[in-house]
Amino acid sequence: MTTITGTNAITLLGAAHTALRTAVAGIPADGWDLPTPCEHWNVTQVLQHATGDQIGFAAAITGGPWPSEDPFQPSGRIDGDAAALLEQALTASAAAFATVDADAEQVPVPLPQGPLPLWVAAGACALDAAVHAWDIAAATGRPSPLTAPDAEQLLTVAKQIVEPLRAYGAYAPELPMPTDADPTAALLAYLGRRPEWTPQA
Q: Is residue 11 part of a domain?
């Protein structure tokens, strides 16, 4: 299994944020209502959820404001510039994690597990951003924004946090995948997503 340090996780978080920015930048003007791999949610709702989760991670660390709406019940309506609102959330998330010592073992998170070591906490935040970047890219017919090395690290993080979260509906049951599957496919299947998903399939 891939070894991750606090410093690695912060780098991974930056890559995940970039992936989410890239995916959102690729949403066409008529793409906001497209279906996504997140059942019952369209592109707008996935973006609302992803934005709210980043704000939640920042708030847990800093004590700042929490999302204005429940990320798990996104309205499908965004007031203002969606990319600008996402950028504010990503900036807050990155700034919050930048205040944490690299060897910290008790980092507050908006997860039922409670405080986690930095590598898991920042990795969890990265996992959220990265998988929703993939959701949006898949929904809009764009290439996967995830690299194989990042997917390998994200899978290591996922195996630390995901099982308890399935009970809350945060992730679907794991799907079967060949042992020789590529890292991104393995990650997506573990999170309950079909790597071959398209809006038509």
A: yes
Is 161 part of any domain?
A: no
Q: Are 119 and 84 in contact (CB under 8 A)?
A: no
Give the tens place of pLDDT for each residue, 66-110. 999 999 999 999 999 999 999 999 999 999 999 999 999 999 999
Range of the domain at 114: 6-148
Q: Report the domain count for the chain.
A: 1
Cα 62 vs. chain centroid, distance in angstroms? Answer: 20
State how far the Cα of 201 lies from the Cα of 199, in Å rounded to an integer.
6
pLDDT tens for residues 140-194?
999 999 999 999 999 999 999 999 999 888 899 999 999 899 999 999 999 999 9
Q: What count of other Cβ atoms lies within 10 Å of the Cβ of residue 10?
A: 20
| Distance (Å, whole) CA 33 – CA 14 | 27
CA–CA distance, 199 with 30 (Å, rounded to integer): 14
Assess if residue 157 is contained within a domain.
no
Assess contact for 18 and 90: CB atoms under 8 A.
no
User: Does 92 fall in a domain?
Assistant: yes
With 0-12 / 13-18 / 19 or more C-beta atoms within 10 angstroms meaning exposed / middle / buried, residue 32 is middle
- Helical packing angle, 118-139 and 183-190, nearest 10°: 100
